[in-house]
Amino acid sequence: MASLHLPCATTPSSQTRSSSRPVFAKPSHFITHAKRDHRLQVSCSAAENQNDSSSQGKVDRRNMLLGLGGLYGASNLVSAPGASANPIKPPELDKCGTATNLNNNTQLDINCCPPLSQNIVDYRLPPVFQMKIRPSAHRVSPEYIFKYNMAMDRMRRLPKDDPRSFMQQANIHCAYCNGAYDQPGQGTLDLQVHNSWLFFPFHRWYLYFYERILGKLIGDPTFALPFWNWDNPKGMTIPPIFVDPKSALYDEKRNQANLPPAVVDLGMTGNTDPLQVVANNLTIMYNEMIRGNSDVYDFMGQPYREGTPVNPGPGASERGSHTAVHVWVGDPRQPTGEDLGNFYSAGRDPLFYCHHANVDRMWSLWQYFLPSKTVPDKRITDQDFLNAAFLFYDENAQLVRVTVKDSLDNLRMGYDYERIDLPWLDYRPPPQTVAARVTRAGKSASKPETVFPLTLDKIVRVLVPKTKKGKADELLVLENISVDTTKFLKFDVFINDEDDNITELDKAAYVGTYAQVPHKTANKSATTSIRLKLTDLYDDMDVADDDTVLVTLVPRHQGPGVTIGGIKIIENPKPAPPKTS
């Protein structure tokens, strides 16, 4: 791969979605070929004035919070919590069992369980007197790098039985994500924090305490974790601070072919053209964050309650860019993709926390800064969501109980993110007229009732009837997706695609993806469904008046691991009233 220099992109100051199309087919103005520059220094005007209200289209929430003395409450974001029926309860640490390597379903020969403590305290967020600003990892100063290295070195040197030590922190992900915990009072039913509405809140709390522990170890309560800015072309390489073998941030178990200057492939398409990969990445981000969501659950993940099986359904970001980065960094030389490519070992790579800081940043952007026309209400007021709880050790090695409702506002938790341009914000694909080619392809396409259920081991094209002619608010539903949970799986979905080049995603025909990092279930399988919004796609492809659309399913990484039970197009249902008691 050619060495790249990725200059910073610029985003219009207005954050309202424009009806105009991009003036480029490939993001060549984001990239220039140059000599390798490990420093990757950037000068972005958006970052120079981090309190500029126009930098992301909203009044600066940091100033509002600090102006209120840190008392900006979650009540401004969600309805007041009442009695909850069946939220997920925190695990019983004394019943923690052996975790499982999900790639081969063998029990691990390590203990992922945390130290036991009988003293559990309900955690109260402390007042915010000074906001922590999490910086872009590609833009940090030498002073910051020194401080971060020192904090990580001290964390690694803590006694192994100290819950704040690096391995104990890494084991949090192993235990919560690989079957070491059962749901309390539910027999052997697993507790899992992925593939549901718990994904964002759990990882936010996880990073919150990890960050506070690092700050405590160096005596700096203002220390903030960096985020890997993989949604911006300038940040689409592994941050240089993580590739120095002498650094406490280094992990040798990474894909050596994907070290800088390799460009992260959020689509996992295998395309080797860096310009095309960046174009794919920006398209993926636009789809995940704006185009593909019809309600709050499409982004956050589906409801997951006490007594119900794992994997009700991941949100767009979790099953897309989040999963792709895990697998892209994981080391193919290792038996099962360690470190980042396997849930049990992901936390052993310091890059994990930097990656998830950007995942958390996506949640914050989606909540507060993105256009709200398609999903006007981004709150979840369901009490089973708000009252779901987890256990963590804080910076003082005190075991604390936390709830989802206290994680809904990152400012109330005392941190924000450096302002960085969002080049994907207006990266809506150009219009695409495909009638002639689709007509020819449609003649050989099957009808759903003749091919489903099917094992997705090759490209499949199927004609799916719409609910009605005319411009409609519709969803494509892939239902009863049965997956082998021990494998990395991914497939992409296209509508009326006239192009046979399946590694190019920067087109209106690309509608979304399904992907998973291996995870444990009782019988190595799970069943889920995904919904993909079609309303904007109909405008982009001028197919609103057609009776049917041609759906193409493209397997990327399989195993033979995916069976799809059915496919249909439905009208976008009106949201159900929230569960309040």
TrEMBL record:
Pfam families, sorted: PPO1_DWL (PF12142), PPO1_KFDV (PF12143), Tyrosinase (PF00264)
GO function terms (MF aspect): catechol oxidase activity; metal ion binding
Binding site for Cu cation A: 173, 194, 203
Key word Disulfide bond present: yes
Chain spans, region Disordered: 1-23
Annotated residues for binding of Cu cation B: 322, 326, 356
Compositionally skewed regions (Low complexity) per UniProt: 10-22
GO biological process: pigment biosynthetic process
InterPro entries (UniProt xref): Di-copper_centre_dom_sf, Polyphenol_oxidase, Polyphenol_oxidase_C, Polyphenol_oxidase_cen, Tyrosinase/Hemocyanin, Tyrosinase_Cu-bd
Alphabetical keyword list: Copper, Disulfide bond, Metal-binding, Oxidoreductase, Thioether bond
All copies of domain Tyrosinase copper-binding, residue ranges: 194-211, 349-360
Cross-link 2'-(S-cysteinyl)-histidine (Cys-His) mapped to chain: 177-194
Disulfide bonds: 96-113, 112-174
UniProt cofactor note: Binds 2 copper ions per subunit.
Cofactor(s) for this UniProt protein: Cu(2+)
Entry similarity comment: Belongs to the tyrosinase family.
Family annotation (PANTHER family): CATECHOL OXIDASE, TYROSINASE FAMILY MEMBER
Protein name according to UniProt: Polyphenol oxidase II, chloroplastic
Organism whose genome encodes this protein: Sesamum radiatum (Black benniseed)
Organism phylogeny: Eukaryota, Viridiplantae, Streptophyta, Embryophyta, Tracheophyta
